[in-house]
Amino acid sequence: MASKLQQLQTKAVQASKFVAKHGCSYYKQQLEQNKQHIVQPPTVEKCQELSKQLFYTRLASIPGRYDAFWKELEGVKQIWRNRQELKVEDLGVAALFGIELYAWFCFGEIAGRGFTFTGYYV
């Protein structure tokens, strides 16, 4: 266990040195590549204005997303009404989708606890 901790510590030091050496140039490169997205002048007031624009734009998009949700729900209802005509492949895709949702739920629970596993003794 101590050797693994030492290895982890060594790798952390190496990563820290790499970031210290190359971090500034990477930062400048990213700014240069994405300069078309930078608003001039980059001030706190401009950031607050953009934040408000984003919030109200998202708020304005709710009716469209609401309509899309009900259309999607109507499609699911139609499939449910015609469930006798479903093929095995369709049922398999639905089952995999359900399993994936459950897995994301479990991962979210673990992440919410700070990546700790409760109830298990290792």
TrEMBL record:
Q: Where is the protein situated, by its record's location annotation?
A: Mitochondrion membrane
Q: Which residues cross the membrane?
A: none
E.C. no: 3.6.3.14
State the GO CC annotations: mitochondrial membrane; proton-transporting ATP synthase complex
**Taxonomic superkingdom:** Eukaryota
Q: What class of enzyme is it?
A: hydrolase
Q: Which InterPro entries match?
A: ATP_synth_F0_gsu_mt
Q: Any idea which UniProt keywords this protein has?
A: ATP synthesis, CF(0), Hydrogen ion transport, Hydrolase, Ion transport, Membrane, Mitochondrion, Transport
Listed under GO biological process in this entry are: proton motive force-driven ATP synthesis
- Gene Ontology molecular-function annotations: hydrolase activity; proton transmembrane transporter activity
Q: Which family does it belong to?
A: Belongs to the ATPase g subunit family.
Q: What is this protein called?
A: F-type H+-transporting ATPase subunit g
User: Which species?
Assistant: Apostasia shenzhenica
